[in-house]
Model the fold of this input.
Amino acid sequence: MSKPSDNPADPFKKALAEATRTLADDPDMTVTYSVDPAGMSKEGVRLPQVSRRMTRDEVMLARGTADAFALRRRYHDDAVSARYAPTGPLAREIYDAM
Done:
């Protein structure tokens, strides 16, 4: 049996990873935490690191990022997105951010 972690952020990170997989409807998706910029790939998502202190800002950023990536993974359709994408560079940047 493994030793329980002494990091108070671990239960939060585990719960957030499971919620992200559930929201994305992808139980095999990998969820990692890193100080590198958040990102999404075919295999999974990289979320912002949550420190042992678990500040309100860290928790909110991690949750918001996780929700955004999970919903994009579940509902985004590249063909539909491309069909309605605006042509101007600024408009396209705003459109892609949504």
About this structure: The radius of gyration is 16 Å. The chain is about 50% helix and 10% strand. The longest helix spans residues 56-75. The first strand starts at residue 30 and ends at 34.
